[in-house]
Amino acid sequence: MDPRQYFEIPSLITCALAFAFWLSLSPFGPPMLWPLVWLAFVFVVLLNPLPRFMSRSSRWWTIKNLAKLFLSGAFKVDVHVWVTCATSRNWGIHYFIAILPYLMRLVQCVRRYRDTRFLGNLLNAGKYASGMVSSLCYHYWVHSGTPRQGPSFVFFCFTEMLSSLYSCAWDLIVDWSLFKRDTRYPLLRPDLIYTSQIASYYFAIITNVLVRFIWVIYIPPGRLSFVLRSVIAALLELLRRVQWNFYRLESEHLGNMDQYRVTREVPLPYSTLEYLPEMSDDDEDDGGM
């Protein structure tokens, strides 16, 4: 099969979704009608018997897994495919997919440093580079098949510790602008927006540090599989990123105010100075009367 054919069905479904959004905002029928039409269209595309869209084996695999999805709890959850992907000889592909976000941000930071010559962009690139190295050590440790012992495990712990310390320092000092001197509240900054929720700042600091070191969940032995531990770590990381957004946005807003990039005064499209003499003459005439 031509690799370009793999994108035909996703492209068709995405295009139909765009039209469904457009029709929901149009006067053609009730707004909730078109999402339902789109869902019906998706089921028709995925489950139709025509060989043009999908082969018989692929269609049967789709139907079987959709049935398991809708009947969750009635079947045993089988995740050995993902474990095999992560620990087989093809672990390099899995690692490359895992570091794609780090790689993209690394390239962006290097380009910004090239354009601005600001050292902070290069230091930010170092943070993502440390994440790529720690991810490499993690995948190699899992692939080596020697859990909790051996050089691969030592390198994994060492690189993860350095990456976590690097990321924590960047989150708290650079992104959130905390740990300022001479502040009303210790470890915070002079200007705060959420003044009625001071405790939330300390809660965010503690939880951010704990989740940055969530990789320790892989170390203790137990009945929990690597897949389940990975799911727990991913969910906690998701919550940490949601929390990070609030205080990062607050710090950026306060920084814009300090540098006068944000103002409440809107400049007029004309100058008012030329009208001042006329206003003075009117005032003198009023005084003479």
UniProtKB/TrEMBL annotation:
Entry-linked InterPro entries: EXS_C
Superkingdom of origin: Eukaryota
Keywords: Membrane, Transmembrane, Transmembrane helix
A biological-process GO annotation: phosphate ion transport
Pfam families per record: EXS (PF03124)
Chief location category: membrane
Membrane topology reported for the UniProt record: Multi-pass membrane protein
Compartments where found: Membrane
Protein name: EXS domain-containing protein
